[in-house]
Amino acid sequence: MDNDELARQVASMNWFHQIDLGNGLITPGADDSRGKLERLGLPESLAGQSVLDVGAWDGFFSFEAERRGAMRVVALDSFVWERLGKGGFELARKALGSRVEDVTCEVLDISPEALGTFDMVLFLGVLYHMEHPLLALQRAFSVTGRQIIVESHVDMLAETRPVAAFYPGAEVNNDPTNWWGPNPAAIEAMLRAVGFIRTEVLSVHPLPETPYGRAIVHGWR
Q1: Is the whole-model pTM more than 0.85?
Q2: pLDDT tens across 1-55, in order?
Q3: Who's near 131: CB < 8 A, 6+ residues apart?
Q4: Tens digits of per-residue pLDDT, 121-163?
Q5: Which of 28, 32, 83, 195 has its CA 20 to 30 A from that of 20?
Q6: How wide is the angle at C-alpha 93 spanned by C-alphas 89 and 94, nearest 5°?
Q7: In this structure, what are the phi and psi dihedrals at residue 51, rounded to the nearest 5 degrees?
């Protein structure tokens, strides 16, 4: 399709990610995808590696992993794609000429039998939406061959021991799908509990005028 038609289709959709489709066209997502990428600690080269992007949504991080040379990239989602659709992901994949694979799968259904294993698993913006976060990380561990990168909402930042706040309603951003606010120590502890040998809190960014923040934690088998 020509650029005008692509721009028309982009404008007709609701976007979460800001994806550069080329020719000056960037999808108008609300998420600061590129800013998050700068903090993520994703290796500059993923040449020869396989990557699983859990909770892919529009696919920004899936396409970025491919751009950095990943041999195989699988974008996985269910919650967003089944409720809001996956038109954004499919349009971006077509516009970019991408070979990223897509799998509709619940996080708790992730397994080596269903998906295989991956050198790297991206678990970005997912953990705090899980009713059973430790089980979710167990499923992620089962398909991680080398490294996982977790990006998450965090709470209780003044605590140094592993703790998590429980949100029974819509206390955070008026969103009832936010269940837990672990602190960074809790994310590290959960990663170690499910089998990761080494962990590192790469960054913690408190959000102004709130008790919350965002954290990035890496784990290695």
Answers
A1: yes
A2: 788 999 999 999 999 999 999 999 999 999 988 888 999 999 999 999 999 999 9
A3: 179
A4: 999 999 999 999 999 999 999 999 999 999 999 999 999 999 9
A5: 83
A6: 120
A7: -135, 135
Euclidean distance between CA atoms 65 and 43, whole angstroms:
9
Token readout for 40 is 């993520």
- Could you tell me the CA-to-CA distances from 194 to 53, 187, 189 in Å, in that order? 19, 11, 9
The strand pairing partners of 72, in sequence order, are: 50
Strand-pairing partners, residue 74, are 52, 101
- Specify the amino acid at residue 157: L
Phi, psi of 108 (to 5 degrees): -75, -5
Helices 87-96 and 60-67: crossing angle, nearest 10°? 20
Looking at the chain, the number of H-run helices and the number of E-run strands are: 8, 9
Is residue 156 within 8 Å of 165, Cβ to Cβ? yes
118-124 and 144-154 strand pairing:
parallel
Token pair listed for 65 = 């992993």
For the chain, give percent helix, strand, coil, nearest 5. 30, 25, 40
Distance from C-alpha of 138 to C-alpha of 144, rounded to nearest angstrom? 10
